[in-house]
Input
Amino acid sequence: MEYLDFELPIKELEEQLEKACSIGEESDVDVTDTCKQIENKLNKTKKELYKNLTPWQRVQLSRHPSRPYTLDYIRAICGDTFVELHGDRNVKDDKAMIGGLGKIGDQSFMFIGQQKGNNTKTRQYRNFGMANPEGYRKALRLMKSAEKFDIPVVCFVDTPGAYPGLEAEERGQGEAIARNIYEMAQLSVPIIVFIIGEGASGGALGIGVGDKVLMLENTWYSVISPESCSSILWRSWEYKEQAADALKLTANDMMKQKLIDEIIKEPLGGAHSDREATFEIVKNKIVKEYKQLKNLSPDELISNRIDKYSNMGVVKD
Output
């Protein structure tokens, strides 16, 4: 398992615990009390460490290489019922944006989300989770199909931003994202959005409009990444920690500003430390939120959704 810089105290204690336990297994020495003491200290250290995380440390956790990605969630939640659908029927199939049909129990859902890679080869294949215009158009095509067959939509947001390349701009990156926002606001089926990692800029908003928007505890949601903000304001990436603090991008900040509906608490140590528990939490949230939304008529869904987003950013004297 990989450790971030601020997690090194945890790494040291886990190594001590592993060494003490192995000594007990290989010899007749009773190390039960020692192991218990180290374990208690480890749990205490974890609680203290993750209770007082800075915004930059949460950004680091959202990018942890062992953190589950969109396909991990979908496969864990749906099992063998998930069928991936491809292509925008115009240009090509964008590998950074994935989507398809899956079931939770007897209920079908249309799952859509950005997908990052687990190693160098798959990161390049997935374009580091940065979708081209055809990715957003594929997502919209799948949403429209879901609407046609009265299937609720679940979106998983995890992207450093939409792909900023010249060819993406040539094919209408801005228009594709704007079109998605416009169409999602008027979709007649329930939309549940989860921020599971990075939620950067328009790349996140392109699949981020929902009746319910939920953020995992150690994720971020902002108009720009801390590094890019730092490079613009200070002409250097060295001030990324100050930028992360100033941007107010954490789940708690988003909740205070009423830009999201709920914060999903992660297992102690982050989603990567107990993936199965995280999958179960998200699955239960999908079921719970859908039970509340399914009783609303299409007109009520659209009206509530438009009112929700229209009220964001309104200042009253």
